[in-house]
Design brief:
By secondary structure, this protein is α/β, with parallel strands linked by helices. Helices cover 59% and strands 6% of the residues.
């Protein structure tokens, strides 16, 4: 087998895809009839359009069923209705599929039923066809799958349908999965329609209402609360687990088509998702944000996979959506989601998120991002830069990722050293992804619509039933952690300060600033020295150019005195000599201008000569320059390694964080070895030779005081008081205690916000429900369901908040406050429920004669399902080949690196 050549340009899998898909089509010819996509496309489009036209009346029927249903199953209700049956109704034969039963029955069609589908929905069935359904799935069965799938996303529709077949005692057929999928899509669409009606009734249908009220602890501000440094703390990050394979097929000439995705006419309406159009507005910013400046300012570039797009480029021919980019608040509520489309984690995704959050939440936002150091420069140089600066947006680096960044970056961006941040680690995205990754297997081969629908539904359910349910536990655990930090610090820090002979805690602030200045000094040479050395080098180049010019003139003059050579040879030699003389003259003039410019800049009145003291002094600086640079590089790496070793061995550091830091140290060790080899080579060439070091000697250094080499640098870092292990331990403990006090201040505010929100929200929803009980009982019932979604956890929250108030050191209050916002729809506003427009306007009559819809036969549905299985199997093989090829690619890269 020949190896697959992998480039960095992308698209090298096209030929491979053609071969694999060709093999699958050849195999499938013996298994399955190949479907005409145009026929299937038309059939799917007509089906979805027919359902969409009936959606208003189907929604009304669902509201009626939801209000009338009792604690009984479908067949119990059917039997009871038969006993109460009258004469003014028709009948419709249909096969009813429930979880434990399947039976063919005759359902009643009332004169008030607008369509056959509405009659089925009113009686608790979701039809599998919009016009003349022959099969209906009970709403209870669909809701059971919805909840089970949200709790365990690995549960596919096919697995659930097979489970039902086992319970029914029948064999599984492919068309059953397709029928269930059609009914399930309809059910979710009805639920979204009902949710929209409830939002309109509660006056909560304004743009971005969900985002503005995503988290009670973050967004439910009170009138008399203290001003927080950060009005909202959020984290954002990309995740490539939820990628989706781009479906492809073969054209008639066996060439690979662009896409075999069938348009379904379905579009997800969600304010959680940022559209591709909105995100692409910032594509230009992500490519023109000053790449050279970013490279110079960001010393952490290349240290993270999401800063390197080469891996993703190879997959562009396989995947359409290569993952998602999300933003979550510090408590875990989802704020925004964007699809990463045929790209890696480009800057346009975080730029789009920041733009939306600034527009909705305003000033003083703090955003954590694992490459926040680089993104800060990108944001400043983008079109959002002026707005972000005026609104005091702060780019931060999460605690988990931050410890693998360079030390200088940590001092400016790490959570430990940011005033007002509290104990927040800004790593909420990692915890979010650890749960959402369970969606990956179900979404890898889904359609565009079904993938987005699953992601949006998952985050909605996670917010309501996981994040909100655990909100009070979050507040309790953080409060207890902050109190423990302060108690331990009060017992330990005074002893450390006494040993260090430090009497004032403000010294730690000065030490932090000194360390910043010191590390910044290692990244660049003194400006005056640099200019002097540049001037010296230009003088040397000017002298060399004068010698070259003299030699060229002599050679040109001598070329005219050649006697023995033929004329054509003499002419050629003369032309060559003239060219050499002209080039030497141009070089001399260029160097002369550079020297003159530097003399003006340095205000040098007399040009240096080799006999001048300044010439000799700067000459020694130039000779020492390479040695000094190698030494600075080695010192910076050793300092960072020692500080991170100190962090890794510190008590309280979790296993995952120690493992993460160990990987970073392993990467840094490679850089130290390279820097050490460079230093030893230069040190040996110095006059007199400088001391060289061995690898075993360097890696054993654990404290700066043990590193004698540092005393040979421009500044001896071991003489600084903050460089000792004891001083660093005291300094970090001091800053951790500062953050703990800030955390308590924020938690006191969030605890009172939650108490007030629970009181106001319960009152508002109950009053709206009571206002609608007489005029629209079905809608009032839906508001009651909506109230119970989160309301079921409120008693638990109140108990947990009471536990917080009993913690020794609690400084807040459980007395509810007054909301700062009382506009219509707010929890603290006066309840004024309204009837949605859809319920006030009579639905338009449904006319299907204009677009006749053939009944979906079992053969049609079998073909659809089997065709999808073939394409999925081919795509899965391509995905496996991609992973193997990428592994070999990485091995090749590593081999090349070792050879270098």
């Amino acid at each position: 087998m020949e190896p697959l050549a992998i480039s960095h340009a992308g698209g090298e899998f096209t030929d491979l895809a053609r071969e694999v898909l060709g093999d699958f089509w050849r195999i499938s010819n013996n298994r399955v009839r190949r479907v005409d996509n145009r026929t299937r496309r038309d059939r799917v489009l007509r089906r979805n359009k027919a359902f969409a036209e009936q959606m208003p009346v189907i929604t009304d029927a669902y509201l009626a069923w939801s209000l009338a249903r009792r604690k009984e199953g479908f067949f119990e209700r059917l039997e009871r209705e038969d006993l109460d049956s009258g004469s003014d109704y028709g009948q419709w034969p249909i096969s009813v599929i429930d979880v434990f039963y399947a039976e063919k029955v005759n359902l009643r069609i009332l004169p008030t039923d607008a369509t056959i589908s509405t009659a089925l929905v009113r009686q608790g069935l979701m039809p599998c066809s919009p016009i003349s359904p022959t099969v209906g799935i009970t709403t209870e069965a669909l809701d059971l799958y919805r909840v089970a799938h949200l709790r365990s996303p690995q549960l596919s529709i096919q697995a659930f349908v097979k489970t039902m077949c086992d319970l029914h005692g029948v064999g599984f057929h492919r068309h059953l999965s397709r029928q269930f999928s059609i009914a399930f899509d309809l059910y979710l669409q009805v639920r979204r329609s009902v949710a929209a009606m409830v939002a309109e009734s509660l006056r909560r249908d304004s743009p971005d209402w969900r985002l503005k009220h995503a988290c009670p602890a973050c967004t439910y501000t009170l009138t008399d609360e203290p001003q927080l440094t950060f009005s909202l703390l959020y984290a954002m990050d990309g995740n490539d687990s939820l990628k989706r394979v781009l479906r492809r097929s073969l054209d008639t000439d066996d060439s690979l088509s662009t896409s075999s995705e069938l348009p379904t006419g379905q579009q997800l309406a969600s304010d959680r998702y940022l559209s591709r159009t909105f995100v692409d507005q910032f594509a230009r910013d992500s490519t023109t944000a000053g790449d050279e400046d970013v490279h110079l300012e960001n010393t952490c570039e290349g240290r993270w996979k999401n800063m390197d797009d080469t891996k993703t480029k190879k997959a562009w021919g396989i995947y359409d959506e290569t993952g998602i980019f999300v933003a979550v608040c510090r408590h875990g509520f989802s704020l925004l989601v964007a699809d990463m489309v045929q790209s890696g984690e480009l800057a346009k995704y975080p730029l789009a998120v920041v733009s939306k959050l600034l527009d909705v939440f305003g000033s003083n936002l703090g955003g954590g991002y694992d490459i926040g150091c680089q993104f800060k420069t990108t944001l400043d140089n983008s079109s959002l830069g002026p707005l972000a600066r005026s609104m005091h947006h702060t780019c931060l680096v999460g605690a988990f990722h931050g410890h693998a960044h360079r030390r200088l970056c940590q001092l400016f961006s790490l959570t430990t050293y940011i005033k007002g941040l509290g104990l927040e680690d800004l790593e909420t995205c990692e915890r979010t992804f650890s749960k959402s990754n369970s969606l990956a297997s179900a979404l890898r081969y889904a359609s565009v619509f079904h993938r987005q629908q699953s992601i949006d539904t998952y985050f909605e359910h996670n917010d309501d039933f996981e994040v909100y349910a655990n909100l009070s536990d979050f507040l309790y655990n953080n409060y207890k952690q902050a109190l423990d930090v302060l108690n331990d610090g009060d017992a330990t820090l005074p002893n450390l300060m006494r040993d260090l002979k430090v009497t004032d805690k403000t010294v730690f602030e000065h030490w932090l600033e000194e360390e910043k200045v010191y590390l910044q000094g290692l990244t660049r040479e003194p400006e005056v020295e640099t200019l002097h050395m540049e001037y010296w080098q230009r003088l040397v180049s000017l002298t060399a150019s004068e010698e070259t010019l003299d030699a060229a003139i002599t050679a040109f003059q001598g070329s005219s005195h050649l006697e023995a050579a033929p004329y054509d040879v003499q002419a050629k030699n003369t032309r060559n000599a003239e060219s050499a003389r002209r080039h030497a003259l141009e070089d001399h003039e260029r160097y002369l201008k550079l020297v003159q410019a530097l003399e003006c800049r340095l205000e040098i009145e007399k040009r240096w000569t080799p006999h001048d003291a300044e010439w000799q002094r700067v000459g020694r600086l130039v000779a020492n320059r390479k040695y000094q640079r190698a030494l600075d590089r080695l010192e910076g790496l050793i300092v960072a390694r020692i500080f991170e070793l100190t962090r890794m061995n510190r008590a309280g550091t979790g296993y995952k964080l120690r493992k993460h830091i160990a990987k970073a140290l392993q990467t840094r060790s490679v850089a130290i070895r390279t820097a050490l080899n460079t230093y030893n080579a230069i040190a040996g060439s110095m006059h007199p030779p400088r001391r060289t070091l061995k690898w075993d000697e360097v890696v054993e250094y654990a404290f700066l005081a043990d590193f004698d080499l540092l005393r040979d640098t421009r500044a001896d870092v071991s003489r600084h008081p903050w460089s000792s292990a004891a001083a660093r331990s005291a300094m970090d403990l001091h800053f951790k205690m500062c953050r703990a006090r800030e955390e308590i201040e924020r938690l006191d505010t969030e605890v009172r916000r939650l108490v007030t929100y629970i009181r106001d929200e319960e009152r508002y929803l109950r009053e709206c429900e009571n206002q609608l009980k007489d005029t629209s009982p079905a809608l009032a019932h839906q508001i009651a369901i909506h109230r119970n979604t989160r309301g079921r956890f409120n008693s638990r929250h109140l108990k947990r908040l009471y536990d917080i108030s009993k913690l020794p050191g609690f400084s807040g209050t459980l007395t509810p406050g007054v909301s700062a916002d009382t506009s219509p729809g707010e929890s603290a506003s006066v309840a004024n429920a309204q009837i949605p427009t859809q319920m006030l306007v009579a639905p338009l009559p449904v006319d299907h004669t204009a677009s006749p819809l053939d009944v979906d036969t079992q053969d049609d549905l079998d073909d659809e399902e089997e065709e999808d299985e073939v394409v999925e199997q081919a795509s899965r093989s391509l995905h496996d080949v991609l992973l193997i090829a990428d592994d070999f690619s990485h091995l090749g890269i590593h081999d090349d690196a070792e050879e270098e």
